[in-house]
Amino acid sequence: MATTVDNKLTGAAVQEKLSEKELCPDELLAGQEAAFARDIERLQARRAAFVTVPCPACARGDFLPTLKKFTFQYVTCKNCGTLFMNPRPSMEVMAAYYGDSENYRYWAEHIFPASEAARREKVHRPWLEKVVAYCRRYGVPQGVLLEVGAGFGTFAALATVSGNFDRVLAVEPTPQMAQACRERGVEVIAKRIEDITGEVVEADVAVAFEVVEHLFAPQHFLLQVQRLLKPGGLLVLSCPNGQGFDIAMLGSVSLAIDPEHVNLFNPHSLALLVEGCGFKVLEVSTPGRLDAEFVHTAIKEGKFPVPRDPFLKRVLVEEWDRLGWPFQQFLAAHGLSSHMWLAAVRR
Ligand SMILES: [Zn+2]
């Protein structure tokens, strides 16, 4: 690993404890799982249109088969350690998948409305505080904030009413989602980022939460974002860390391994990718709060065996109530959680 990048790995600020149940109520989970299963079947039926790609972070072509899930193959780049789906749905197949996804419709109609208040307070408010803290730490003006892939608009709405930025703009191409943003009082550009040409968007800050792991060509996406930022403008990304605890432990059992997450970068490889797209990386952190709980729950529900290792068994099972949360804080502070953040400035 390149030391220049590793040196930018920062300890995550210890945050309030979070539980998975707060974000997706149990009674809605079955409906979501059924919708997702039908999406996966449709994707499997399009396998003839899958394509083989080089590493999405470093563009090298040397990789090792690592795991399979839902019959899809994931490989690890021998150079940078990125875990990625390969072969993967072509750009057209991906666009069709998101266009008619039952899972997304289910989220929009059921899960988001039922959990929006919890998400706003437990997830999006800390995100906003983190973005504002980056601006202050690195002297970036809190002028125009651009959220790319704004989805339901919860974050953008919160940012809008917070008054932390002069103007908040959301980019959201899915019509129903763009409408949801408008209903929340958010100014929306209902286009794909590639298609934003006419409007003059000169953003001080661009954020993309949980977006880059879904993209066929993340490098192309980052170059587009770079184009919409002022020189010295701040880029903030969040995405899974493919080398984080729950993914490393659970492998294909991890919820982070799904057909939508075609790129599972790590702190090193994400920084490499971002630096290659005209940015200077400021810091990478892994402030995740759920890894240990995911593993604990998988064991409890019989989806994953009780660890043979007595140490892990003690932490994750026998003394879970005492050690689970401090262990999670340790993971978060040392770049070992599966939830990752990166901050960079446009060169
Ligand atoms: Zn690579």
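^ zinc ion complex. DSSP finds 13 helices and 13 strands in the chain. The pocket of zinc ion is lined by residues 55, 57-58, 60, 77, 79-80, 82, 269 (CB under 6 Å).
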